[in-house]
Design a protein that fits this description.
Elements: H1 2-23, E1 62-68, H2 75-90, E2 95-100, H3 111-117, E3 122-126, H4 149-163, E4 171-178, E5 182-186, E6 200-202, H5 206-213, E7 217-219, H6 223-232, E8 237-241, H7 244-247, E9 256-259, E10 268-274, H8 275-280, H9 283-317, E11 321-324, H10 327-350, H11 355-370
Parallel strand pairs: 1-2, 1-3, 6-7, 6-8, 9-11
Antiparallel strand pairs: 3-10, 4-10, 5-8, 5-9
Helix pairs in contact: 2-9, 4-9, 4-11, 5-10
């Protein structure tokens, strides 16, 4: 009998011990802190964040495909790949980005819609490659006299953030970058506005309107198609940033460059992510994407300017002539393209878009950031 009482007593004590352990308060887990972005004017590759500052390497790995229209050897593709690796690193291994350069997953004009439909989760290409798809943002590409890639990239990002137009609401744009001033590279010398008349010039988006204003004949095509088109005489010239002549090797199939930076335009390029995929990401992973993207704005701008320097050196190495435009000729070119600005404002007004204020804000930022910028 005593033995039975002893067994009951032991069982009661065991149950109370288990219940007490289950009700004991636990030490709260400290919140995860995202990595802090670098804000230097010339950011270097950020050091690996301390373990306490990086997202915990737990949970399922998010695997993303990234369609990049630049070829793998282009500095902008290399910069994009570096961005992807930095996102992976700061995510603590929770993000894996597979890059597909050179239009190998989606061709340049289809990159944006490919992100919308989920062909790729991430994409980089030009707004201008789908003419009419981004009517307000076409204002970024106008011949407004951009001095270099750093200014163009900074202006483009601020304008996209300020206006957040509905035309890009079907994805989440991470950041934008833009090249230095466009110039005219041709198979025969162009010294005056009259030399452009009737010339077949490769151009896309609003740059096609620039060619029309100069009395040339625009031929639309993406950069990957341009080398062969110049080589075979399908086009006689290309309107492009000078870096293109090395980055896409197009300097091999032209003979001269006309410095038309007096009407310097740019081409704004997006880095965007599928909206549903973005919204499915945990908040700390979203923070990693946002922070790294903010840092890479400066990196892309600097890469564009370094590429322009390399492009000039490449042209010189091929003994191609670089033709400056006299002041009187520059005035003619500026007057020739002025109707494009007016046409942009009028077209936006018809669509109920604030093209006039967008244009004025863009011009204001160009003037602001051009002070002290290398010409």
């Amino acid at each position: 009998m005593k033995t039975n009482h002893l067994i009951v007593l032991v069982c009661v004590i065991s149950v109370l011990a288990v219940v007490g352990a289950g009700c004991s308060p636990k030490e709260p887990t400290p919140p995860v802190k995202p990595a802090t972005p670098t804000s230097d004017a010339k950011p270097q590759a950020p050091a690996a964040p301390a373990a306490s500052e990086a997202p915990a390497a737990s949970g399922p790995v998010v695997e993303l495909s990234y369609s990049i229209f630049f070829p793998p050897t282009h500095v902008q593709c290399e910069t994009a790949v570096a961005w992807a690796k930095e996102v992976e690193k700061r995510s603590g291994g929770r993000v894996k980005i597979n890059t597909f350069p050179g239009g190998s997953l989606t061709q340049a004009p289809q990159v944006y819609d490919g992100v919308v439909s989920g062909v790729s989760e991430l994409g980089m290409s030009c707004f201008a490659y789908t003419r009419g798809r981004f009517p307000l943002l076409e204002g970024l590409d106008l011949p407004l006299g951009y001095p270099d890639g750093k200014v163009a990239t900074r202006v483009a990002n601020e304008m996209v953030q300020k206006y957040a137009p509905q035309e890009i609401a079907d994805t989440h744009v991470l950041y934008v970058h833009a090249h230095g001033p466009g110039i005219l590279a041709s198979k025969k010398p162009v010294r005056t506005l009259d030399d452009v008349a009737g010339m077949k010039v490769r151009a896309t988006g609003l740059s096609a309107k620039i060619v029309e204003s100069l009395k040339g004949t625009p031929v639309g095509m993406s950069q990957p198609e341009t080398y062969e088109a110049l080589q075979k005489g399908v086009v006689e010239a290309t309107l492009c940033p000078i870096e293109t002549l090395k980055g896409w090797k197009q300097g091999e199939v032209i003979s001269s460059v006309t410095d038309s930076s007096c009407i310097g335009y740019t081409t704004a390029m997006f880095v965007t992510i599928n909206k549903a995929k973005w919204e499915s990401l945990p908040a700390d992973i979203q923070a990693v994407f946002t922070q790294v993207s903010q840092e890479w704005v400066a990196r892309h701008g600097e890469a564009w300017d370094k590429a322009d320097e390399d492009g000039k050196a490449f042209v010189a190495s091929l003994n191609h002539e670089i033709i400056p435009l006299p002041e009187a000729e520059q005035t003619r070119w500026k007057e020739a393209v002025k109707p494009i600005l007016d046409g942009y404002v009028a077209a936006c007004k018809e669509k109920g878009l604030p093209g006039d204020t967008f244009l004025q804000d863009t011009l204001g930022l160009i003037a602001k950031y051009s002070q002290g910028s290398a010409q």
